[in-house]
Amino acid sequence: MQRYQTAGVTRTGAEVVNAFMRGVYGWMTAGLALTAAVAFMTASSPAMLQLIFGNQISMFIVILAPLGFVIALSAGIRKMSPGMATGMFLAYSAAMGLSLSSVLIAYTGASVFKTFLVCAGMFGSMSVYGMTTKRDLTAMGSFLMMGVFGLIIAMVVNMFMQSSAMDWIISGVGVLLFTGLTAWDTQKLKVMGETAPAGDEAALRRGTILGALTLYLDFINLFLFLLRFMGSSRN
Fold this sequence. Notes:
The chain is mainly α. It has helices at 13-43, 46-53, 56-76, 82-106, 109-132, 138-161, 164-194, 201-230; strands spanning 3-6, 9-12. The longest helix has 31 residues, at 13-43.
């Protein structure tokens, strides 16, 4: 059995992987909780809604800010301190909360909550599958990533076509893609935990933040695509 010496304590390989994955899920949960809190507080404040959505400049800043955080965090995390990486992830989660406040305005609270529960169940099931399956999901992951690029192109095209039928197809494909990506990313993170450098706590912390970001994105995208099917409009 493989053992690691970390901070004076000997741990088995399985214990290291379990600790790594607990960190990933813990920070992902913290990010989702922060996003939900910021979204709720923003949607409940007419002043904040006016500030964000009252003009196009501020609206585009709020919409594009999360993308900027993702690019910066993904590209530069290896050069960041663990504390800075954590702060960037939490700032990204808060920015997503501002952006997703529009969801709480467009859909009823009951349908948002129902969709969240369904999303959590689907995400949890596929993440457990990714952790426990003996099947190598690498080939499936490559196919799914190509599907995501195709999905993005289809969404851009449909912005001009404004086809409701195409929108339903895109939503269905999005649900399937991010359900599969949850399993693939979980397995990839499990391998990352198995091959993590022994005793390098800083690298492990950065890895947990990058893993949390990965699964956070899977969860949020799955939730948004499901909401197109299950959400009840306020209008």
